[in-house]
Amino acid sequence: MHDGPTDEPDPIDADHVDLLQAFIESHGFLSWLDLTVEELERGRIVMSVPYDEKLVNPGSPVGSIHGGIAATLVDTASGFALRSTFDDPTNGSLATTDLNVTYLRPATNDLRVEAEVLRAGGSMGFTDTLVSSVAPDGEQKDVAVGRTSYRLFPDADRA
């Protein structure tokens, strides 16, 4: 998502991807969105949500998806990307301290979100996020960009 030196991806254990997907499926709102993990590596995640009428703004002549869905994707994908930098991604915690979403155009198809960690160290983490609308023919249009910051608690036991 940004220019700079390209490092080889640091893959995440497939079991962690399965645990993450199981968490999503057990989460009321995220499962309602039908959120799916597409790719996961240390410091980066790609997720998707299929287009569904339940996500559309009422009365929208073009069937545009409510902007809150894009904001949710920015926050959720960013948190998961940051969690992937923990020594044990299944442990620890984090809290959103700042969430900024800039909307570029209406989303009218499936959604794809890619979050990349800019920095994760000490007690804070930062991400850049891109949300795209993907048409059935594969055409992809950027619909929102996000930048987040989080307070990190990588060694905290999850309750």
From TrEMBL:
EC number: 3.1.2.-
Keywords: Hydrolase
Domain of life, per lineage: Archaea
Gene Ontology MF: a single term: hydrolase activity
CDD domains given in the database record: PaaI_thioesterase
Keyword match Kinase: no
Domain Thioesterase: 63-129
The protein's enzyme class: hydrolase
Protein family: Belongs to the thioesterase PaaI family.
PANTHER family, per the entry: ACYL-COENZYME A THIOESTERASE 13 (PTHR21660:SF1), THIOESTERASE SUPERFAMILY MEMBER-RELATED (PTHR21660)
Protein's recorded name: PaaI family thioesterase
Native source species: Halobaculum halobium
